[in-house]
Specification:
Blueprint (H helix, E strand, L loop, with lengths): L3 H15 L2 E4 L5 E11 L2 E6 L2 E6 L5 H6 L4 H11 L24 H6 L1 H4 L3 E10 L14 E8 L4 E7 H14 L3 E8 L12 E9 L2
Parallel strand pairs: 7-9
Antiparallel strand pairs: 1-2, 2-3, 3-4, 5-6, 5-8, 6-7, 8-9
């Protein structure tokens, strides 16, 4: 028999994952009419009319952290599993991509069945570089997003866009390197910005650069 308190927690979480609401970070950034799609050890992934974003618990007020069961120890352990040492991965903890083997795809796979991937998170592995090309659903997004280009192990490319307040460090690293850097990238093919085209345009949600 499932304990009553467990049932209550699951019911509360289920409600949180269904109803849209507003979230405001401690720095004042607002996510209006956002739906929480899932909860991770270090944050929540929310969907709004502008796309999908991950909001880290360290960015959220204490009451929101408690509501979604944030446990700093568990979050730290999860980050430690993904990045055993600072020397092996120089990227800040909040930018550690959690990768499941089932989530790893090639750009060619996604191109061949694009509707299947709409509003789904998936992982690409390859190189990333700064771009200045804003196409299709991201035309006019220069004020809200930085543009990048990802080339995977099969040499296929896609255009990737990340919110400016989350992508500043990545852009600086790439500009400092003077060229592409290797890494793994969590992305989503957003229905709200989708226009079928041979060259994919994806939302970059998270990343981990490799030395």
């Amino acid at each position: 028999m499932i304990p009553r308190n467990t049932i209550a927690i699951l019911a509360t979480l289920a409600a949180s994952l269904v109803f849209a609401e507003d979230f405001k970070t401690i720095n004042g950034k607002e996510y209006k009419n956002a739906t929480v799609t899932h909860v991770e050890p270090d944050g929540i992934v929310v969907k709004t009319k502008t796309g999908i974003s991950k909001v880290y618990f360290t960015e959220l007020p204490k009451e929101v952290q408690e509501r979604f069961g944030y446990d700093p120890a568990k979050a730290a352990q999860s980050a430690k599993v993904q990045a055993p040492t600072a020397q092996s991965n120089p990227v800040a903890p909040q930018q550690q991509t959690q990768i499941a083997a089932a989530d790893l795809h090639t750009i060619r796979e996604v191109e061949s069945d694009q509707p299947k991937f709409l509003d789904q998170h998936f992982v690409l592995k390859g190189t990333i570089e700064v771009s200045s090309f804003y196409q299709f659903g991201y035309r006019g997004a220069q004020q809200s997003h930085y543009a990048f280009r990802i080339v995977d192990s099969t040499k296929r490319r896609c255009d990737a866009y990340m919110e400016r307040d989350k992508a500043g460090n990545l852009r600086e690293q790439l500009l400092s390197a003077g060229g592409p850097l290797k890494g793994v990238f969590t992305v989503a093919l957003l229905r709200s910005r989708y226009m079928k085209d041979p060259v994919l345009s994806v939302e970059l949600l998270d990343y981990r650069l490799e030395q």
